[in-house]
Amino acid sequence: MKKPLIGALTALLLAGATALAGAAPANAAQAVTVNYAGTVALSDCSGSVVRMPNSVDTDPALVLTNGHCLETGMPSPGQVVVGQSSNRSFTLLSASGGRLATLRATKVAYSTMTDTDVTIYQLSSTYSTIKSRYGISPLTISTAHPTAGAAIKVVSGYWKRTYSCNVDGFVYRLKEGDWTFKDAVRYTSSCNTIGGTSGSPVIDTATGLLVAVNNTGNENGETCTVNNPCEVDQSGNVTVHQGINYAEETYGIPACFGAGNKLDLTLAGCTLPRP
User: Fold this and answer.
1) Could you say which of 3.40.50.150, 2.60.40.10, 3.40.50.720, 2.40.10.10 is the CATH number of the domain covering 20-35+142-249?
2) Would the pLDDT of 190 be above 60?
């Protein structure tokens, strides 16, 4: 889990990462501009203001981050949190990474670390309010499975740092401590994310759509321990890739939200774990 650590801060300073990091190769086609607009900083993680494809401007806005960033503690394996009261604050960033405002949650719409690693907060502000006051539009969650080889950017509001790489492939099961994530995204090595990048949106640079949420990486080469996830294939074979990082797919989330951005885990096509 990529929580902020003293070691992560030291690594960041040693890398001289006060400048924007991870620029794409000069010959990489960039169909859209990816910046910090729509991203947020939490007290210990990163996140983003998001919308579903069917969300409307008058809906209460949503913030997406990791399940392990939940302020009341990491959900246990099998635990699903729905409708929990929250007044958590988020720092909304401008396109250049400047602080624009503080947004506040009214509840945890959904949180789990079972099969995936997501927390979705409902805010007290609507999309139209955020747009009219601060000029910021939400990121749209794609309903399509990510594509192997796709160029992506991981945008951390906590560090105000961007990582550029590609989708290296997909992991049948990613095990980390007591938790298991399904069909995780494996990055190529240039997305060397650190503590505090947890919950960062993963953006497909061809479409500008959010396709995953950054969540973990193997730091020390250990096997299946916290901060050292291992890959398990369909035959049960275990593989460890030290220094490689991962994200959890998000394309299944929109099917679980109906009109008014209301969570409904009984909707057709919704596969998120239920309480």
Assistant:
1) 2.40.10.10
2) yes
